[in-house]
């Protein structure tokens, strides 16, 4: 909220909170109607007809017509959605990585084998501007014996100088200052060495260099060595990791037809005592003391990947190959088969039968059965990427590819909506202040499942149960504690503070919406509303009409007042998630491709008041656009404070509404709008509804 403005808190409405701009709001959102509670209006009593008389009175006054009785509605009956039980390996992520393995070969403490474990996988945050494993490599290098020896050579002189310049400090304080100087020096030396010898291998094939939405490959330091006789540790090899990572998970896919993708792939192996293969260069004990990686394969000019995606039948097939310098000598290492799920795919990487017995030639002899997962990236599925781990945990592979040739005649369909709209900030906005600005709409990442909120490597289950979850009256509140500052691959996490999620509603299975509070709930917060929905894939109605009822949540801010006690003050209203007292009511005509509706709330006197009318709705495919307006100013506008003592009425004019129909048979519908006007009137609103049927 704006700084420098203050006003007493004014409460109005059942549980809505109306305040001046700089007042602290007890957040959140709203909804009602279709949340499983039937909506009724008591029928009016008809005026009885007068009794018949022999001599009727001339020109009698006719009886008043009966007021039509509004039907009693209930949610349409739908099949309950079940949660898929996926392994951690098959759960979608923006990216995955694994650290390269180095085996301890000290004769008195020898490891026989270092396998690739699922628990070693690191979920990545989709940030393509930094390199995964940078922090790990740099920290290990800084703490290495050679760097520490260099940094400590001048410790005596540094200590003497520090004592001379800080005569009033204790020995402990002096030591802390010296340690800090030595640590900074070690970091400086490590960075110089790191920049000289690090290898970033994700563009080696040429195909990786022009990817826009994904990257994949190795990032490592080839000079890793640890020799600690006292602790019986002897290691040498590569320090770093293998990974794939993507941004902008696709929200539109081709409606039908097949598309070819071409690219490359990379891999790493376990490290086992005596491990070596005739197809690989193992002079430095690769496969034995360290993981083998793609560049170790002899005479290979390219590790190529090629995929055919049948979007109509939701199937993906492909191959991962080693192409030797002699182009006629190409070996298929894995055949890929997968099923599409939204913008993700899951399946297997299987080894050709003829290669499974060649255990002395190469490590590609074991399948990854139901252990492959990936997804499409870019607005229109321009690129794909994924990973797999073999059944015996001996090979971890990553791959990426892009559409070989764009077909301008391809028809695309929107498969999901996911967006966040900034509401207001308190204090300095907290650690996540830059995630979204007030009254601005921003796309959220999503893996085709409206029940999962994706914030980088943090994925929040919106239908979860447990200690950090409370449910009441169709509203669920989920608390996510502040995560660690970096993920396992050393990337900064997107979620940087505690998060409280208020989500609506229990009866909505293919869409979710609600209110997010990043921060402490009382100060230095960033508040926002969000909406996610899986667009109707089949049986979208094209004729007939339907009633939809549900709930909404949002935040409104008005212009500053100019008269009396309202001078310099701005009205505001936060409507929390409250399905019993926030109502969304829509009438849809599928034949005319139109819709109208309204958003209302129940005040503290149990009076229902309209906040927005939704008009000029136009349906296009499974989506729609419309206009949202508060009551016209000549009708008073929307007054958060009925006495109008805290600024002007709020006036939102023709806010652009975007929304869609979700789930089978378009049984759910919702939308959002962000409104930011130079005159000081602003709004951030989301709503969700369910199709209704007349209660019998």
UniProtKB/TrEMBL annotation:
<feature type="domain" description="Transferrin-binding protein B C-lobe/N-lobe beta-barrel">
    <location>
        <begin position="540"/>
        <end position="691"/>
    </location>
</feature>
<dbReference type="InterPro" id="IPR038197">
    <property type="entry name" value="TbpB_C-lobe_sf"/>
</dbReference>
<dbReference type="InterPro" id="IPR001677">
    <property type="entry name" value="TbpB_B_D"/>
</dbReference>
<keyword id="KW-0998">Cell outer membrane</keyword>
<keyword id="KW-0843">Virulence</keyword>
<dbReference type="GO" id="GO:0009986">
    <property type="term" value="C:cell surface"/>
</dbReference>
<dbReference type="InterPro" id="IPR035313">
    <property type="entry name" value="TbpB_N-lobe"/>
</dbReference>
<keyword id="KW-0564">Palmitate</keyword>
<dbReference type="InterPro" id="IPR035316">
    <property type="entry name" value="TbpB_C-lobe"/>
</dbReference>
<keyword id="KW-0449">Lipoprotein</keyword>
<feature type="domain" description="Transferrin-binding protein B C-lobe handle">
    <location>
        <begin position="432"/>
        <end position="536"/>
    </location>
</feature>
<feature type="region of interest" description="Disordered">
    <location>
        <begin position="30"/>
        <end position="85"/>
    </location>
</feature>
<dbReference type="InterPro" id="IPR011250">
    <property type="entry name" value="OMP/PagP_B-barrel"/>
</dbReference>
<dbReference type="Pfam" id="PF01298">
    <property type="entry name" value="TbpB_B_D"/>
</dbReference>
<feature type="domain" description="Transferrin-binding protein B N-lobe handle">
    <location>
        <begin position="73"/>
        <end position="154"/>
    </location>
</feature>
<feature type="region of interest" description="Disordered">
    <location>
        <begin position="348"/>
        <end position="372"/>
    </location>
</feature>
<dbReference type="Pfam" id="PF17483">
    <property type="entry name" value="TbpB_C"/>
</dbReference>
<dbReference type="InterPro" id="IPR038669">
    <property type="entry name" value="TbpB_N-lobe_sf"/>
</dbReference>
<dbReference type="Pfam" id="PF17484">
    <property type="entry name" value="TbpB_A"/>
</dbReference>
<feature type="compositionally biased region" description="Low complexity">
    <location>
        <begin position="37"/>
        <end position="47"/>
    </location>
</feature>
<keyword id="KW-0472">Membrane</keyword>
<feature type="domain" description="Transferrin-binding protein B C-lobe/N-lobe beta-barrel">
    <location>
        <begin position="253"/>
        <end position="403"/>
    </location>
</feature>
<dbReference type="GO" id="GO:0009279">
    <property type="term" value="C:cell outer membrane"/>
</dbReference>
<protein>
    <recommendedName>
        <fullName>Transferrin-binding protein B</fullName>
    </recommendedName>
</protein>
<feature type="compositionally biased region" description="Pro residues">
    <location>
        <begin position="48"/>
        <end position="68"/>
    </location>
</feature>
<keyword id="KW-0732">Signal</keyword>
